[in-house]
Amino acid sequence: MIDDLRNIADVVNTAMNCEMSSSSRKRNKVNAIKIYSYICRVITSSSYEDIGFVINKHHANIIHHEKDLENIIQQDQELNDATKYCMRLCRDMLGKGSINHKDNIQLNWHLLSLEQQKRLSRSVIRYVGLNKRRENV
Q1: How many C-beta atoms lie closer than 10 Å to residue 79's C-beta?
Q2: Are residues 57 and 78 in the same domain?
Q3: Residue 55 in contact with residue 9, Cβ under 8 Å?
Q4: Could you tell me the residue range of the domain that residue 125 belongs to?
Q5: What pLDDT digit, counting tens, does each position of 87-136 carry?
Q6: How many domains does the chain have?
Q7: What is the crossing angle of helices 27-43 and 2-16, to 10°?
């Protein structure tokens, strides 16, 4: 179980480009701890003590960061996207669900050109229409 927590910490450290066990208070590091705490509680059955042990934090810090993230991601779209991205990577790494195409498209939509977005939208509309016709037959 601790190995899974260490692997999650490595994924979040890499994705957020920071080191959670350092003693700095930079926003990026604090956000990484929030994401790590939340992911560990959602996809593992680890205790707060075990989660905190991996990154040298007290269990009360983990409780605070987990609850804080749940409130913040409702207003901060960038942090919400980072959380979803890290969650997908961790689920894929642990074999608890893979990254699907819909998630990849949503995650990278802003990187597509306007023409690519239009083509993809038309393809999805066509696909949905075909599936509706099949259900009616």
Answers
A1: 17
A2: yes
A3: yes
A4: 100-137
A5: 888 888 888 765 556 656 665 677 788 898 888 888 888 888 887 777 77
A6: 2
A7: 140
